[in-house]
Amino acid sequence: MTTLVLTVVGDDRAGLVSAVADIVDSHGGNWENSELAELAGAFAGIVQVSIAPDRADDLRAALESLAGTLTVTVHAGAAEPGVASARAVTFDVVGNDRAGIVREVSAALSGHGASIERMSTQTTDAAMAGGRLFEATITATVPADVAIDDLVAELERLASEIQVDVALADEA
């Protein structure tokens, strides 16, 4: 099987996921993983599909029929990283919203060789204090030779500097 990664973007409306799923299914593809969201009236997502290698080009061509409704870009999936060489950590970031939080946290992770596997962010009204509250949950893959304690210490130092709370939620 071949792995394809689809990125989809368009104006939000009912039936977008169904349209993509119908095309994937009609070409013998298997919808494996996805993250889909509506943000500010736009629909965006990323979808991992497995398909027989001899059917991949037909699927790519069929997805082009969505032009005008959705922009779909097809990428070849990469091989899965070795499980033994890395560990996953999940942590939460919470603080008053301001520009640069994602940049600072992602730079700290990158500086330790960690790769963001999954990240979900949102801003909400801070009911008691006024203003906006930034919240993120981030799962990162950390190389086996990086001490988790060192990464946590760096994130705690950064948290103090940019005035957010960073808490380790899970270590796999």
From TrEMBL:
Domain of life from the UniProt record: Bacteria
GO terms under biological process: regulation of DNA-templated transcription
All copies of domain ACT, residue ranges: 5-77, 90-169
Entry-linked SUPFAM superfamilies: ACT-like
Pfam families: ACT_6 (PF13740)
Protein name according to UniProt: Amino acid-binding ACT protein
Organism: Microbacterium testaceum (Aureobacterium testaceum)
